[in-house]
Design goal:
By secondary structure, the protein is of the alpha/beta class. Helix content is about 40%, strand content about 20%. It contains 18 helices and 20 strands. The chain has helices spanning about 5-15, 20-30, 35-40, 55-60, 75-90, 105-120, 120-125, 175-185, 205-210, 230-240, 245-250, 265-270, 340-350, 365-375, 375-380, 405-420, 430-440, 455-475, and strands at about 65-70, 95-100, 125-130, 135-140, 145-150, 165-170, 185-195, 215, 260, 280-285, 300-305, 315-320, 325-335, 355-360, 385, 390-395, 405, 425, 440-445, 450. An 8-stranded mixed beta sheet has the order 3-4-5-2-6-7-1-8, sandwiched between helices. Strands 10, 11, 12, 13, 14, 15 and 18 form a 7-stranded mixed beta sheet that branches. It has a 3-stranded antiparallel beta sheet with strand order 9-19-20, with no helix packed on it. It is elongated, with a radius of gyration of 26 Å.
């Protein structure tokens, strides 16, 4: 069976059947998605959208199962937009669902899809009803329905859905329970198209990319005409070379060395409390900042991941409530110099009177930690300047054995333990959820855990806050506490 609609061949067949040129042109525009996009889609400048050579086979694919395992910035989102518009014209009285694991990915995608419809007069007039909450929804004059849904805890938002077409974006982040509910939400003869960027994990998305009964596509980032040698070098520096996991995954669209998810996303979602009293502040250079003066009396802890220039900084405040740690405040700083970051920490400390502050003292954090600790003895007692590459040394065991744990691995275990116990409370924060969903690790030749480099700044701030709490409570826990030695300034 021919898997693609080849326009010229189709035109010849229809011509031999006696179709007029006008009728053939109408049929081609409706059924050849490359021609459909050229007729109805405009680029950012308002010009007719022109498909790239490598995009055409995918647009013309009519297989019920199609898998994209791609690099970043290759045009996957644009194809999904085109498919939504095409389906609204062709699939009368049927339903299409666009699905992601996290709101962080669904919102910008569905915003672009809705804008395509609303800004095109030919399509806008066919919309009968459009909603953005509690889920994305459009109903059209021909009976077609378009849904946009995140999985929710254990895929609960897919339950009760029965659609004819599923498009899954950022498929590498769907949990196994979400996949199970998604499968059940597709009608028997329905189509499922899957788009993802590999992250090394060998879950459902990986297995789909190995399924030879599905049409497979791999678009590395270099296919994009705007991908320059300078961009390539920049990405190599960012990810650590052409053989690094980040480069293999996000640039080449290849699975690379097997990796594993650091966190259980179902456990994470169980710890999210949407009604939590929480505030998130975003600052850029020049913004003023004043912490609230109405802080309930409690024990508070601060975790800081400091960046500058391209990397953001993340500060997270936790309140101890019995066995729970509750995230009550977050500050995101972008392009803010070190002196200003120090001032923000001091202002937060004025409001919350932290018992302990954990600071990632890599190159970015070391200077700030040193300046604060040089102020007075109280700051020296309060700050734990943490070298992620160092080791934490616990007190000897009864037999005299000394346990040394890699700091980053130990802090990660503190987070994993609290997620499993449901003893940490998060607000609904899409940026954090996206980072926890994507964070992965591999195991090196020496058996050491290697965490993939990427967007994990909130996670690192959480790591620091939890270690600060662990250090503080361990030091008060009894007459013979565990007293780790964490790398700090002498």
């Amino acid at each position: 069976m021919n898997k693609y609609l080849e326009s010229n061949q189709a035109k010849r067949v229809l011509s031999h059947q006696g179709w007029s040129n006008e009728k053939i042109a109408q049929w081609t525009t409706a059924h050849d998605r490359v021609a459909f996009a050229q007729a109805f889609v405009r680029d950012q400048s308002g010009a007719t959208w022109a498909s790239r050579e490598y995009q055409r086979a995918s647009l013309r694919c009519y297989d019920r199962r199609k898998i994209h395992c791609d690099g970043r910035d290759v045009g996957k989102t644009c194809e999904i937009e085109i498919m939504a518009m095409w389906a609204s014209s062709i699939m009368a009285n049927r339903e299409l669902m666009i699905a992601t694991q996290c709101e962080h990915h669904l919102f910008p995608l569905m915003h672009r899809v809705f804008r395509r419809f609303e800004e095109n007069p030919d399509f806008a007039k066919t919309i009968v009803e459009a909603k953005r909450t509690p889920s994305w929804y459009m109903r059209f004059t021909n009976g077609f329905i378009l849904w946009g849904r995140i999985a929710g805890p254990r895929g609960v938002n897919f339950q009760g859905m029965h659609v004819d077409f599923q498009i899954v974006d950022e498929a590498q982040e769907l949990t196994e329970t979400s996949w199970g509910e998604l499968y059940q939400a597709l009608n028997g003869s329905g189509a499922r198209w899957v788009y993802g960027v590999p992250d090394g994990r060998r879950g459902t998305f990986f297995r789909m990319t190995q399924d030879q009964s599905a049409e497979q596509f791999n678009w590395p980032s270099r296919l994009n005409p705007d991908f320059t040698p300078e961009k390539d070098l920049e990405l190599q520096r960012l990810y650590g070379g052409k053989t690094s996991p980040g480069y293999l995954h996000r640039v080449l669209g290849q699975h690379g060395t097997p990796a594993h998810g650091v966190f259980n996303l179902d456990e994470y979602q169980d710890c999210v409390q949407e009604t939590l009293d929480f505030e998130s502040v975003e600052l850029v250079e020049g913004d003023s900042f004043a912490a609230t003066s109405k802080v309930p009396a409690a024990d508070y802890y601060l975790g800081c991941d400091l960046g500058f220039a391209r990397d953001p900084s993340e500060f997270v405040v936790y309140r101890a409530e019995g066995p729970h740690l509750v995230n009550v405040f977050r500050v995101n700083l972008c392009g803010v110099n070190y002196a200003r970051q120090q001032a923000v920490i001091e202002e937060l400390n004025r409001a919350y009177a932290f018992r302990r502050i954990g600071i990632d003292c890599g190159n970015n954090g070391r200077a700030v930690a040193h300046q604060l600790m040089s102020k007075n003895h109280d700051w020296c007692e309060k700050i734990s300047a943490i070298e992620f590459g160092s080791a934490i040394e616990l007190d000897p065991l009864p037999g005299g054995e000394v346990i040394r744990r890699p700091a980053k691995e130990f802090m990660t275990e503190l987070l994993q333990r609290r997620l499993a116990e449901r003893s940490i409370v998060f607000p609904k924060l899409t940026a954090r959820e996206s980072q926890y969903a994507a964070h992965s690790y591999s195991v090196g030749n020496n058996g050491r855990i290697i965490y993939e480099k990427g967007n994990d700044h909130i996670i690192d701030a959480d790591r620091c806050a939890l270690l600060a709490h662990w250090l503080d409570t361990r030091e008060e826990s009894g007459p013979t506490p565990l007293r780790p030695r964490v790398a700090t300034f002498s």
